[in-house]
Amino acid sequence: MKVAVVGATGLVGTVMLRVLEERNFPVTELLAVASDASVRQSKEVTFKGQQYKVVSMDDAIAAKPAVAIFSAGGTTSTEFAPKFAEAGITVVDNSSAWRMDPTKKLVVPEINAWALTKEDKIIANPNCSTIQMVMALAPLHKKYGVKRVVVSTYQSVTGTGVKAVAQMENERNGVEGPMAYKYPIDRNCIPQCDVFTDNGYTKEEMKLVNETRKIMGDDSIRVTATAVRVPVQGGHSEAVNVEFAIDFDIAEVRALLAATPGITVQDDLDNYSYPMPLTSQGKDDVFVGRIRRDESQPHTLNMWIVADNLRKGAATNAVQIAEYLLQNNLIG
Predict the structure, then answer these.
(1) How many C-beta atoms lie closer than 10 Å to residue 307's C-beta?
(2) Which of 111, 148, 292, 296 qualifies as a cystine partner to 222, CB 3.0-4.6 A?
(3) What pLDDT does residue 220 have?
(4) What domains can you pick out in the chain, each with its CATH number?
């Protein structure tokens, strides 16, 4: 199994290599793909204790891997994913480039991997904040019918990238340096993730709206979102308010979530057990807690959802897609 990781030297690419290794994905030959500048600098990555020199896009395409997992930004994906696909290589893309393309599947394996076929040569990996939310919504939607979702996110600086992590660390250490954000992030919350759109929402907020409907296969679900950047280094958190078509039983909600692969319920208030980004770091599950009825209106539930945004929110979900393709003879 020849595998290419495109953007292998980046924050998510590094985690992708780690996840491929941890999950024992059957990589017989690794192609660590990076920018021309990285190739000229002879940069290397580590995988299973071995060093691999990065290679160019053209070299990777010529090598014809079975699958290429992209995490190199939308511009790179728009240009190169079709070139990989034309060469018969299946692309799992972590950027936003293909997510809302009606000809491309947007996949969270636990929810809708069944829709994938051999003909799907470019498969979109959803946004990190969307993945963790729909993981909790999907089993509840089947049982009760989700009508409306109000979500407020508390998103780690790792969602922005290395520059943002460096900014926060510099601020904590009293060091001046490049700014990933317009304002200081340490000891602060910035109510802006991504750029603003014409309707006053950010792109991140609209991803939660549009991607949720596409993954759940239901355009009738109403979603409204506020996305906030917080001074946390790993893990996104979400306060989610869900209105259902019919009433629910709290114990049954907990049981449904606990029985869902990829979800861990942490909801023991007597022992102060609830999800936190600190304890989600390095883990692949989505953690759900603070499960309680909204007493202000009927058929409505509150949940607190946390996940490591670099793992299930990005790298792990992409690798799980590749695993599904392999297990079902859709690649290789």
Answers:
(1) 34
(2) 148
(3) 98
(4) 2-126+314-327 (3.40.50.720), 129-309 (3.30.360.10)
Report whether 202 contacts 195 (CB < 8 A).
yes
Q: What pLDDT is attached to residue 183?
A: 98
pLDDT, residue 295, reads 98
Whole-number pLDDT of residue 234: 87
- List the chain residues with pLDDT less than 50: none
Q: What is the pLDDT of residue 232?
A: 97
Q: Catalytic residue, from 128, 141, 193, 299: name it.
A: 128
DSSP 14-58: HHHHHHHHHTT---SEEEEE--HHHHHTT-EEEETTEEEE-B-HH
Helices (H), 156-272: 162-172, 203-216, 250-258
179 phi/psi in degrees, rounded to 5: -110, 120
Q: How many CA atoms lie within 13 A of 328 on its CB side?
A: 14
In the structure encoding, which two tokens stand for residue 269, read together?
Answer: 């208030």
- Chain mean pLDDT for the chain: 97
236 is catalytic: yes
pLDDT at 239: 99
- Asked if 156 contacts 233 with a C-beta cutoff of 8 angstroms, the reply is yes
